[in-house]
Amino acid sequence: MHKALLFTLFISAHSASIYASTDLDNGRSIDQGQCYGCHAQKTGFGNGDMIYTRSDGKVHSYLKLKLMVAACNSQLRLDLFPEDEADVAAYLNKQFYKFKNDNSE
Q1: What number of H helices and E strands is found in the chain?
Q2: What are the boundaries of the signal sequence (predicted)?
Q3: Which of these, 53, 54, 65, lies nearest to 104 by C-alpha position?
Q4: 34 DSSP 8-state letter
Q5: Which residue of 24, 42, 71, 85 is surrounded by the most CB atoms within 10 Å?
Q6: Residues 61, 101: contact at Cβ < 8 Å?
């Protein structure tokens, strides 16, 4: 996990924009294929998107979003490459969070 996390942080720190080097279609595909179902089950309402928009959410910055995606990848053994993690984070940010390219907490 540490290598993937460090790589993700390095890429984000050196990109001009959150979306500059990401593939939003890939991020959406991964979210729908590997994340949505788990999140739908976790919320108990059958809607995987609710986890991103809930009022008691844990994600309050783009850095935290990237860390959460990396944690899910590692803990659930999703076998995503670092660039896939970046794509998922960028897609989720564009779709739900709307954070600026800011790595601060």
Answers
A1: 6, 0
A2: 1-20
A3: 65
A4: I
A5: 85
A6: no
Give the other-Cβ count within 10 Å of 60's Cβ: 11
| Both tokens assigned to 14 | 């050196």
* Residue (of 52, 69, 62, 58) closest to 4 by Cα position: 69
What would the two tokens of residue 7 be? Answer: 């790589």
Q: Is the pTM of this model over 0.85?
A: no
Mean residue pLDDT of the chain comes to: 85
Any idea which residue has 């739900």 for tokens?
96
Q: pLDDT for 71-100, tens place per residue?
A: 999 999 999 999 999 999 999 999 999 998
